Amino acid sequence: MAIQPIRLFGDPVLRTRATEVTTFDKELRRLVSDLTDTMLDAPGAGLAAPQIGVGLRVFTWHVHGEVGHLVNPSLDLSEELQDGPEGCLSLPELTYDCVRALSVVARGFDMHGEPVRIEGSELLARAIQHETDHLDGILFIDKLDTASRKLAMKEIRESDWFGAERPMVKVSPHRTNGLGL
């Protein structure tokens, strides 16, 4: 439908827990479409609604050619871990190794309100965990060890995009329930 501006580190909507979706309507389907278009354009492996200024528990992913979305996710994580590179569209050009569960079983709903169960490992598991964290106001840099987090914060402060005047962002066309613009 439409490519939306991606919110960057420092925007308060990225640190706010998103609200559960209760209405599965045309508006939600448009949000999923906008998230998908924006993620594919970026390009990224995933994108959560708060990253486009919408405080609802919805995210999309694009891993190994598969595009999907999940509404109101809950996760069951494996005890086995993976450690690998991770980045974020809200933290441009920043990549650090991050520990995540190796596999995940995610439950939630599709945009029509139908129950969904997704099983994934490695990159898909990483993407699902990363995007679900966004819905809880958590960024991947919060998961780094102390030394790596300090380096990441230094890199952020020295980046061209950090602290620059924020671009004018139009009001979201989606209901935000008072969360974000």
Q: Within the largest sheet, what's the order of strands?
A: 1-2-3-6-7
What's the CATH class label? Alpha Beta
Percentage of residues assigned to helices: 10-25%
The number of distinct helices, counting runs of at least 4 residues, comes to: 3
Low-confidence stretches: none
Family: Belongs to the polypeptide deformylase family.
Protein name: Peptide deformylase
Keywords: Hydrolase, Iron, Metal-binding, Protein biosynthesis
Binding site for Fe cation: 88, 130, 134
List strands and helices in order, with pairings:
Elements: H1 26-41, E1 46-48, E2 58-63, E3 66-77, E4 81-88, E5 91-101, E6 103-109, E7 115-121, H2 122-135, H3 146-158
